[in-house]
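Bug #2210: token dump truncated for protein-tyrosine-phosphatase?
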Amino acid sequence: MVRVLFVCLGNICRSPMAEFLLKHLAAERGCEDELVIASAATSAEEIGNPVHRGTVKKLAEHGISCAGKHAVQLTRRDYQAYDYLLGMERSNLRSMARILGTDDPQKIRRLLDFSAHPRDIADPWFTGNFDSTYDDILEGCNAFLDDLEANGLIHPKGKGE
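Reproduced locally. Full output below:
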């Protein structure tokens, strides 16, 4: 079982988008039972708030629901609870390291570090561009699943069976 925690500043835009998009993609690949996927915030500002309406709308355009999700904050316990802690941008990684401490450079990474074009994912709360954020997160989630598969950590059904 691979345990993944997506992290952004408030846990209302990017990290819940990544959480529910990865769940959707894993189900499409037939490996959803091999993953535990969640999301959290580095900041306490949005704790308890629902997912931003822009994220809800963008996910719904692709038939993905994030109903019932409310922002939660990253805690030190999460470092042991998850195999991968994936931030959306470098500032998230700095905040994550401050909260969690670090001893494994492969455990705390940016989502797009798995892609062919590593970069930060812009915060749509500031940019208003949920389309671009969705495209970046889709790229990152697919690259992350490909990496897990290439390393034998997940086994999608329907491939070669």
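Output looks complete on our side. The chain has a mean pLDDT of 95. Marking as cannot-reproduce; reopen if the truncation happens again.
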